[in-house]
Amino acid sequence: MFAFNHWIEVLEANALHFPQRAALHFLPDGVEIGETLTFAQLHEQSQSLAAALQARCSPGDRVLLMLPSSLDYARAFCACLYAGLIAVPLFPPPSRKPRHLDRVRNVVIDAQPALILAPLDHCEGLRELVEHRVDVLTVNNLGTPAPDTWQRPAIDGASVAFLQYTSGSTGTPKGVEVRQRNLIANVELMRKAYGFDEHGAMVNWLPLYHDMGLIGGVLAPLYSGMPCYLMASQTFVNAPSTWLQALSRYRATASFAPNFAYALCNRVVSDSLIAQLDLSAWQHAINGAEPIHPATLDAFARRFAACGLNPMAISPGYGQAEATLCVSATPAEALPVVLRLDKSVLETGHVALASGDATAVEFVACGYPQALHTIAIADPNTHERCAVDRIGEVWLQGPSNAEAYWKNPDASRYAFEAQIVGEPGYYLRSGDLGFMHEGQIVICGRLKDLLILNGRNLYPHDIEFAITDSEPGIRTGRIAAFSEMDLLLGREKLVIVAEPQRKFVDPAHHPALFASMQTAVREAADCGIDQIVLVEAGTIPMTTSGKIARQGARNQWAAGTLSIIAQSGGQASTPVERIAIEQLRRQPSLSACQQWLEQTLIEVNPYLSVDVELSLIGLGLDSIGIADFAARLHRDLGWDLDTQSLFGERRLAEWAQALLVYLGTPAPGARLESDATPHPRRQSFAQRRLWFLHQLNPQDTHHHLVLHLKLQGPVDRDVLSQRLNALVERHSVLRTVYHDSVDGPQQQVLPASNVRLTLHDQLADCLAQEHATPVDLKQGPLLRAHLISHDHQHDLLLTLHHIAFDGRSAQLLLAELAAQAANETPVQYLDFARWEAAHWTDQRIATHQDFWREHLADVPQTLDLGGSGTTHGEHSLNFSLPQATCDTLACVAREHGMTLFMLLLASYQLALKQLGGQQRFLLGTDVSGRPLAAHNEVIGFFVNQLTLRCEIAGEGTLADFFAHVRDEARLAYAHQDLPFDLVVAALAPTRRAGHSPLFQVKLNYQPSRVAPVTLAGAQLTSMDIAQAPGDFHLVLDLVHAGHGIDATLKYRGEYFDQPRALRLQHLWSRLLGEVRDLLGESLPALAQRLDDWDQAFQRESQQSHALAGRSQLLQTKRRSLTL
């Protein structure tokens, strides 16, 4: 029936047919690629890990995967299938609180795993949880056996591939047995339904323990040969816009998400960001996993049409874990079908379209059944097939259906062996209520009590138990949890009806009781309660068997017949008078901050009863609500908060105080308003330094930046000229000139004028001329543009001065040249200079300078590089680190709680120490220097230089040294905002010509500068930014591209030379290549190892030079004899 029998055959075929094609990319920040796996690498690494698993486990053993979303997760999952083991995807517990651990404990008891794979920081807690009866390891603990040691398992389509657990914490969990044939059938039919192929791309932020995240977001694209761009769920929660930015940047064609994600983007993605997006490639915006709200679809289609989203890309779908994943899909060539049904008829269990004056309820059709699959609508009690106009239970039949729950025969028979009266064959009972409309399935309710909130299946008894277990004020067994679609929220809202203990009837207890209930539900289920209703004893209806009648409680709540004592939420809060943002900035006060936060919270959830003495969790916000709140703070105020800090116990009153402090950070009058006036204005601290150097030597070109853009295809020169002119008009810093005055160094904006796009024939001549010709900072122009064209190959050269431009500016320039910029005027660089002057008060400067004086005291401000050079001038050495090495380094960095840059920094320090012998020195690096979110979209010279303290001593291991460098870097980054010139002023170093103060060696690291982009009709293939080392003796620039890290070692010949540059490259590259194996080595032993490597390399170099010399001599002699 299908081309493959099991998953191993799928990955083997992909590795054979397109081995070097990228299969998976991981985006650590949601935007830049941090790690990539090709199909060949995935196959080989899955084999290697499988061999390690086979050495520990027996065929058919279960392996719990409790890993965060990452390429390690994909490797581990595939390795389980390669090893003939049964993978069990499960969430890493968010804390060690009993409710979180209970979920894990119940699955462990049911699945009886032989092994648990988890992050390092969870391992010890999990070992205690399983009482050390199950091995708990990291993926790296497994080692990397040779792939050829793998033994092919004896599996076929009937073999269980993995278990999908669908239950909560208090009951017996149910693990759906997904067999190899179920998985193959589902991903094959998704491929056909959505047209997935190697020309598309997937972006996935859903957690990989979620069926839609794992099967839809990773396995379906792997099966179809299309690359998947994977990011952590928390990245999306912290900044929902990263999802859309990744779709835009990587021209992705497909992505899965629940309805709430689309609603969240509608609310929090700003107009300015939308103007930068290009969603025209997105063909399948698949919406599923929870009830779909028609207004959400319409709002999303309208809001993002401005950035190219095709409304037919909106694709509602329906799925079930028991059916592997996908049950039905909306084809790409069709708009979603929205039905207006008569509410009164619907309540009788029938379906009728609403007439014009009837009360209507809207439902979204969820697409057509997949090929080879059947959907039936059956009476849940009689098991008879329903008439076409009746609502019934949705029953499913087809090869994607699982056949059983793990070791649960009773539940399996009920769910998987349903039969329609008078018809052959088994059906899967979905528990959902719905009907068919012109071949499409419409879901309109749930037969069982399952709650679906924010795309997750939750069980009411879990939530009820969490409350009564932690809050003695609620009567045990007298509480009902249910949900209701809410138009104001645009999602299902959670309602709790509960009977309080007698002594808690007193209203004085209610605020604390409400807050305690919110906290309990947040900890147990990561959701907030939208409405709490306390009712009189005996109010909640019960069944004849003494159980809570949740549906009865829901009906009474809807009808307004409950005997209510008190409630929190439920009615839209009375709007607080809105304070304009500019008024808040101009006249900040504690009461104004509190009022503004209250109004913002009500915008997030209109049902909140705001109490300033409660935390955000206590008020009822869940992780999605907190993400929404944080996004509004960023959008409206530029206030960037760590989302995790918002989950804490800080009261709203304290957040108001924090906001007041934040607003008071710039001095009064320093708010960021656009200023592009022609009047002279002060230069920024960074500009003053470059202006001073320019005045010393106006002909110097060390601070030139020459952007070299390579283009392929037809270039529309008129469009290119228009975009350049628009760029200069939009960003006043590109038409700013500089001069001195009695008030100090000044800058002044000139009127906009056209940029001259000069055409040339010879690239080399043009490049040489641009590097040699100074930019006139007093007269302009500040931007020069040259185009060299040969057929459809073009080189665009843009020359600027660093005083007006930096690395982030290059990204902004590229984005605006590639697409029409938004209409609104951006904040200007002049605004930053004005803000900076107000922000850096004498007291604030003194405080930061005190830190730097103490932190850098007694550290030598010169670095011995092992002797002087013999040739003057500027030189460079280019080399690269392969992606495989970068992947390993990224993994090691994560294991040690550090960034990849910190690891590169630590290893570079060791190589420098080996070269010159110096154990204590200072090293420099560039930081963005954009302190407020409003600065992120501004072209200008923001970049600041950060001084890093380096000390290599002691008997500790390399791992210990990494921890030391990590801590030192974190400390320095916490004080990175003070302008470098003020740091220099604090330490007052002895100045020497040709020497940068404090440090003369730099290490710079940045992600790839180039995203797939079309510029004036041509495709951008590369962009290089050329800049001389200036007064630095040695600068190592690292750019992390898709194929690895491109490194450029720039040095000045009077202080360094080529032989030492080659030695430095060799030492550093080899150290990075072997770093994982050296983590336990002591620093003295490592120093000896580095010395051995260095001596061997020098001997080999000398031998090579001697051989080359002898060869040259022999050739000279032969020529002499011939003559």
From TrEMBL:
One of its GO terms (cellular component) is plasma membrane. Residues 583-663 form the Carrier domain. GO terms for molecular function: adenylyltransferase activity; ligase activity. InterPro entries: ACP-like_sf, AMP-bd_C_sf, AMP-binding_CS, AMP-dep_synth/lig_dom, ANL_N_sf, CAT-like_dom_sf, Condensation_dom, FAAL/FAAC. Keywords: Ligase. CDD domains: FAAL, LCL_NRPS-like. One of its GO terms (biological process) is fatty acid biosynthetic process. Belongs to the ATP-dependent AMP-binding enzyme family. This is Non-ribosomal antibiotic-related peptide synthase. It comes from Pseudomonas fluorescens (strain SBW25).
